[in-house]
Amino acid sequence: MQQSNIRIARIAAHINPPNLQMVEEDLGLERVNCRAKGASSGFKVAILGAAGGIGQPLAMLMKMNPLVSLLHLYDVVNAHGVTADISHMDTSAVVRGFLGQQQLEDALIGMDLVIIPAGVPRKPGMTRDDLFNINAGIVKTLCEAIVKCCPKAIVNIISNPVNSTVPIAAEVFKKAGVFDPKRVLGVTMLDVVRANTFVAEIMGLDPREVDVPVVGGHAGVTILPLLSQVKPSCSFTQKEIDYLTDRIQNGGTEVVECHSIAMVLCSSIMFESAFGCILQAKAGAGSATLSMAYAAVKFADACLRALRGDAAVVHCAYVASEVTELPFFASKVRLGRNGVEEIYPLGPLNEYERAGLEKAKKELAGSIQKGVSFVKK
Ligand SMILES: NC(=O)C1=CN([C@@H]2O[C@H](COP(=O)(O)OP(=O)(O)OC[C@H]3O[C@@H](n4cnc5c(N)ncnc54)[C@H](O)[C@@H]3O)[C@@H](O)[C@H]2O)C=CC1
Ligand SMILES: O=C([O-])CC(=O)C(=O)O
Fold first, then answer.
1. What are the tens digits of pLDDT across the range 136-192?
2. Ligand 2 pocket, 259 CB below 6 A?
3. Each residue's pLDDT tens digit, 61-93
4. The pTM is what?
5. Beta bridge mates, 204
6. Minimal-distance CA residue to ligand 1 atom 19
7. Which residue lies with its CA nearest to atom 5 of ligand 2?
8. Closest ligand to the CA of 256
9. Using CA of residue 82, residue 88, residue 90, residue 95, what is the dihedral sign?
10. How deeply is 245 buried, as exposed, middle or buried, from its count of CB atoms within 10 A (0-12, 13-18, 19+)?
11. Residue 209 neighbours by CB distance under 10 Å
C-alpha cells in the first residue's frame, strides 16, 4: 500500500472518521492500519449506545484510556456527530462511528471489549423493571450480533434492568452455543462507587480509600451493601446502617427524582437560574449518566488491565455464579485474561445482611427468570 494513500486515508478519517471506510474503498486500499502515531498496541473497544447520556461521556473517557487503540462508537442516532467530536481529542485511540443496524456488525468485528449502555432510561415513578419491555429486545439484538462478530469479546452490560438483561445476554450466547460465563458481566460498579462515597461522607474519609462490597443485583433491595466488610474497617450505629443501606439501594432513584424536582422549580423561575442549567443539561428526564460513565470506565479499565495480564484485579460484578442457589449474582470477582477468573464467596454476614440477602434473592429470582423466558419463548 502506498504511503501517500495511507496518509490521505488517515487525513480523511481524521476530518470525518465515518468516511474512513469509503475513502479506503475509493483508494482501493486494504483496511488502513489506523493506529495513531505514538500509540502503543492496545485493545479494541466498542460502545453500543454511544450517543446517549451515558454513551457520550463514556466514549470521551474511553478515548482518554491509553489501553485503548481502537474505539468503535455505535448508535441508532447521532453516532457520527459524537465520533467526529471525540476524534478531535489528542489521545492515541482511533475512533470510528457506526450508525444504524446495517453497520452494527462492522462495529463489532474484532472487538476485545463491548460495552452496552443502549436502551431507554427511567423516568420519575418508574422502576428499572419497567424498562424491560423495550430494553430486553435491544440487548437481545445487540448480543445476537456479538455472537456473530466477536463471540470471544468481554461484554459489559449497563442497560437496565441489569438483573434481567444479563440473563438475556447469557441465553442468547447459550442458544448460539458460545456462552462463556467468564465473559458476560453486568456492571454494578455504580452501586460500589455510591457506597464508597456515602460511607466516606459520614465517616469523614477519603472516598478513594474506601471499599464497600455491594452484592446481589442492581435494583432496589437486590442491591446489598455489606457494611460489615467495609475497608478500612468501620463501626456504624444501626441508624447509620439503615441510612446507608437505604441511600445505596435508592441512589439511582435519587438521581431520577432529582430531575423532576428541578423541572417543577424550573417551571416557576427564570431559565438563567441554576435550576435552568439542570433542566437544560438533563432535559428534565433520565437517570444517572455522568457518575455511570465514570463507573463504567472504572470497570472497563479494570477489564482491560486484567486482559493485559495485570494481577489482583478484583471488583464486584453481576455474573453467572454459584455463590448462591441463583444462576446469577453480583459479588466480588477476580478478573483476568479470560474475563472472570474467580468468584469470591460472600464472606461472613451479620444478621441484618442475612435478612437483606433473603429479600434480595427473592426479587432476583423473578428478574432472572423473566430474562431467561424472554429469550426462550
Ligand atoms: N447499570 C447501571 O448502573 C446503570 C444503568 N443505566 C441504564 O443505561 C441505559 C442507558 O441510559 P442513558 O444513556 O441515560 O439513556 P439515553 O436514552 O440517554 O441513551 C441511550 C442510547 O441508546 C441508544 N439506543 C437505543 N436503541 C438502541 C439500539 N437498538 N442499538 C444501539 N443503541 C440504541 C439511543 O439512541 C441512545 O443514544 C438505560 O437502560 C439505563 O437505565 C443507567 C444508569 C446506571
Ligand atoms: O436508577 C436508574 O434507573 C439508573 C441506574 O441503574 C442507577 O442510577 O443506578
1. 999 999 999 999 999 999 999 999 999 999 999 999 999 999 999 999 999 999 999
2. no
3. 999 999 999 999 999 999 999 999 999 999 999
4. 0.90
5. none
6. 52
7. 252
8. 2
9. positive
10. buried
11. 10
